[in-house]
Amino acid sequence: MNKVAILGTITRDIEIKYTQSGTCIASFGVAYNEKRKDANGNYNDVSHFFDVTAFGKRAETVNQYFRKGSRILIDGSLDFQQWTDQNNQKRSKVSIKLNDFDFIDKRDNQSNNAQTNQGYQQPQQQPAQQYQAPHGQVPVYNEQVQNQQTQQPAQQSGYQQPQGR
């Protein structure tokens, strides 16, 4: 089985290419940090960097909604590549072929969206409005309720104040 899942940050702008048949190919880098304990018992961040390649509609969608610095959850498979460089040296690398992804940053970055007219926008929800009365006052929400409260006789608690002798 060849499956990998990474929650990371896009490290560079997404590069787009198209094949002769019109298939979109997106290439970008992703990194994540891992905490590792050293010999002294201290935890240090260790960064891991990977190249990611997406194809077709997913490549177009990634390019449309993600930028350098965006966080992304990648579901993919490892892709082993070999080649011979200009100096006749054999080279290889392992990259990730993106099979699926999910949005992690779901907040609206308006400055980025205004400049590029792109970017993921989460629908804005208004926070619940709560009435706060001035300090020391009881809020009144309905005049009818207030009038009913003032017209009701005070309840007897069963406690009687001692009378003077």
Number of helices: 3
Q: Strands across the major sheet, in which order?
A: 1-3-4-6-5
From the spread of the alpha carbons, the general shape counts as: flat
Helix-strand category = alpha+beta
Please state the CA-atom Rg, rounded to the nearest Å: 31 Å
The CATH topology of the domain at 4-116 comes to: OB fold (Dihydrolipoamide Acetyltransferase, E2P)
Low-confidence stretches: 109-134, 137-157
Helix and strand pattern: EEEEHEEHH
* Beta content: 35-45%
Q: So, CATH architecture of the domain at 4-116?
A: Beta Barrel
Mean pLDDT across the residues is 77
CATH class (first level) name of the domain at 4-116: Mainly Beta
Largest sheet, in brief, is: 5 strands, mixed, barrel
Q: Could you name the CATH homologous superfamily of the domain at 4-116? A: Nucleic acid-binding proteins
Distance between the termini: 95 Å
Query: Helical amount among residues, as a percent range?
Result: 10-25%
How many β-strands, per DSSP?
6
How does this model look, in words?
- By secondary structure, the protein is of the alpha+beta class.
- The protein has a domain at 4-116: Beta Barrel (OB fold (Dihydrolipoamide Acetyltransferase, E2P)), CATH 2.40.50.140.
- The chain has helices at residues 56-65, 110-116, 143-151; strands spanning 4-10, 15-18, 24-37, 43-55, 71-84, 90-103.
- The chain has a 5-stranded mixed barrel.
- Strand 2 and strand 3 form a beta hairpin.
- The protein is flat.
- Residues 109-134 and 137-157 have low confidence and may be disordered.
